[in-house]
Design a protein that fits this description.
This protein is an alpha+beta fold and about 190 residues long. It has two helices and twelve strands. It has a single domain, classed as Sandwich (Jelly Rolls), CATH 2.60.120. It has a six-stranded antiparallel beta sheet. A six-stranded antiparallel beta sheet has the order 2-3-6-11-8-9, with no helix packed on it. Strand 8 and strand 9 form a beta hairpin. Keywords: Signal.
Length: about 190
């Protein structure tokens, strides 16, 4: 009986440590509860129609790093939605070399808040988005994605980012990288 009581005390102690860690985690403003300035293109959503096919590293004053390219998209979502063009790249495990985009010095904004975007993955996998915030902190969200269709990704907690990176975290014995395709990005705008 004493051994059982000791085990319960230890388990209760771990629960309190986890709860305290969660309470001390940095809190971010959710996009729908913040004022988000957007330029005209952001208000319409990005659909890449004005982007030439092929590799690129800048578009409308924004910087795109990590091997992005633009191509025609012939895929259809489960909801019947089709897209004209999409951008794509390969995500790996390392955030420092991950495909990313940021509002560079030539863009009309200093920060942004993604609302939703569509993404297709090469195979069923989990993606992590690393939002680099104005204060240098990183707000991270994780999503389970299916390869059968476009996945709708919703930003629920990371408002006011200056960069977003797309990471394919290690997942057992799967591949070292995963191709992603993004046909549109929508922003929270005031």
């Amino acid at each position: 009986m004493k051994a059982l009581f000791a085990i319960l005390v230890i388990i209760a102690g771990f629960g309190e440590i986890n709860a305290q860690w969660g309470r001390n985690a940095k809190k971010y403003i959710i996009p729908s509860n913040s004022i988000n300035y957007c330029d005209a293109e952001m208000k319409k959503s990005w659909t890449w129609e004005s982007l030439s096919t092929g590799s690129f590293d800048t578009w409308q004053g924004w910087n795109f790093a990590g091997g992005w390219s633009c191509q025609s998209s012939s895929k259809r979502g489960l909801d019947g939605r089709t897209f004209g063009k999409a951008i794509s790249s390969y995500c790996g495990h390392d955030v420092s070399s991950a495909p990313s985009f940021d509002c560079g010095s030539k863009s009309n904004v200093s920060s942004f808040s993604i609302s939703t975007f569509y993404v297709r993955v090469e195979f069923d996998s989990r993606l992590e988005l690393y939002y680099e915030m104005q204060d240098g902190s990183v707000c991270r969200q994780s999503y389970e994605c299916s390869s059968s269709s476009y996945n709708t990704i919703t930003n629920t907690q990371c408002s006011g980012a200056k960069r977003v990176s797309f990471v394919y975290p290690q997942q057992g014995k799967r591949k070292d990288r995963c191709k992603i395709e993004i046909p549109s990005v929508s922003f929270h705008c005031e």
